[in-house]
Amino acid sequence: MIKKAFLLFSALIFFTNLTFGQGNISDTTKTLPYISISYQYFFAGGDLDKIYGPGNMVGGDFNVKLRSNFEIGIGGAYIFGNIIRQDSLLHGMQTGSGAILDEDAVAADVFFQQRGWKTGITFSKIFSVIGPNPNSGIKLGLGFGYSQHWIRIENQENTIPQLSDEYKSYYDRKVGGVYLEEFLGYQLFSNKGFVNFIAGFEFRQGFSSPLRTYNIDDMDFVSGNHLDLYYGIKVSWNIIFHKRMSTSYYIN
Known about the structure:
Blueprint lengths: L1 H19 L11 E15 L8 E11 L4 E12 L29 E17 L2 E2 L5 E18 L20 E15 L6 E15 L3 E2 L4 E2 L4 E15 L9 E2 L1
Antiparallel strand pairs: 1-2, 1-11, 2-3, 3-4, 4-6, 5-12, 6-7, 7-8, 8-11, 9-10
């Protein structure tokens, strides 16, 4: 399966170079396929803010910008962070001094981290207001997809019976569901092909449902839906399947 996927991806790169590798974009819009590698620092809002603080996303997308300056993309991202607001998760295991004891009655270290992922499709439009060519400009985007997030509980020695792999799912607050996202920023396709990037603000609304049925620390069944809000700065570096271009400057 992996070999077939690699051959398919290699063929796609070869095809796009043959199809889109000729021509000059300094004075005309062109169809440009590219891979985007991105980083985002986000703040949490809504129900997400009750569990996590600010976090990070790293991701990758495959996009095709059409001659009309409309764009379609597909990809995903990995979500991670170290700020957890659920301080009472393990209160039932703590001693009077706040320590958590392992199976040998020795104080153990437990760490909490935010984890998650998302995958989806985006549709965008580039408005060539200013840039080195008419393929660059202000970018507006809309996307949708599916995402999950949960609390990773790490006990490095794995000697706390209550936090074995069998029981961690009763504490991790895992949820999943569909999301919508919006993007406002700037996209540059340079004439020489060396500097190609996207930078702007991204907003995401996740409509999530619990993927666990019971929380041991609350001693209660899980119910209700979540409205998870993300907003932050996103930057991407783009690898374009296109040859070098001339250096004339475009402004509209």
